[in-house]
Amino acid sequence: MTVTQDELMYLQSQLEGLESIFMELMPFGIELKRQHVQDYYDKRFDAATKPVSSVAENELRRQFNTKANQVRNLVDSAESLGDAGNRLNLIRAAASLPEERSKGLLNSVMTFSKALVMENRVETDVFGEILQSTELRAVEARVLLGAAMFIIDREVPTNEGINMPIIDVLGELVQMVRREQLLTRNDPFLVEAQCALEAMEMEEEELQS
Description:
This protein is mainly alpha-helical. It has two domains: 5-94; 105-208, no CATH class. The chain has nine helices and two strands; from the N terminus they run αααααααββαα. The chain has helices at 5-25, 34-48, 54-79, 87-95, 107-119, 124-132, 138-149, 166-179, 188-208; strands spanning 155-157, 163-165. Strands 1-2 form a two-stranded antiparallel sheet. The radius of gyration is 18 Å and the shape is globular.
């Protein structure tokens, strides 16, 4: 499970690209093509630099170029898995180190993640199988966390016809990843998932107070 600092930085960049796609580009219907991505961030940059000092402008340009590059690199990686517009392919690409990308995922992980991401549904039997699995690898742990932490709805229907709070889904996954030590404590996906979980817990407390 040893991950180098360079690999952690790579995963962090991939995760930031994924967040940009899900939170900035997709909501505005931006097509995930290299030029469209660059055009979007160029327009964002133009809007943000009126008026602004040259020093701040250079820093903003650097930041927007970084975001554009993160997104473009992630889209390129997702295209190697198929359709770059497919949310699951984007998550898989972001969660994988280069040498992991060509390897398939466990069927249970693919089935569960596809249902959650593409159909907004929890396959409870498969979920239970995953939580008891001893075959999960780091990349699969990241995919599972990525699939759960970008769900917007507070509850997700299951194949059994009941609703399951997404906080429970993510909580179970985080607990499993930590228990089985599938990821290092500073893995960007685990850190982000724990932050998302804490935010959900705080929101639940506010709703109940």
